[in-house]
Amino acid sequence: EPEVTIVSGLKDLEVFEGDDVTFRCQVSHENARDVEWKLQDVALQNNEMNEIAVEKGKIHTLTLRKVTEQDIGTITFRVGPHMSTA
Length: 86
Fold this sequence. Notes:
single chain, OBSCN protein, Ig-like_fold, 4-stranded antiparallel beta sheet
C-alpha cells in the first residue's frame, strides 16, 4: 500500500467569534487511514461542535462550529508521519 502524503496543506484563517470555520487538507490517496485532527494538541472528535469529513475521497475537512475565543490556537492535521498546521 503506497504511503499517503499531504498534497495541499492547511491555510491560516481568521474568523469572527460565533462564526463557523472550515480547514481543508488534501492527501495523495483516497481512503487514507491513521488521520487525526487536533486543536492545541487536543485530538478532535466528530460531534455537534466539530464536523470531520472527507470530500471527493482525498480532501479532509474540519469545520469548527460557532467558534469562541477558547478556539484560538494551532490546528494540526496528521496522516501517518506527515503533518500540516495552521
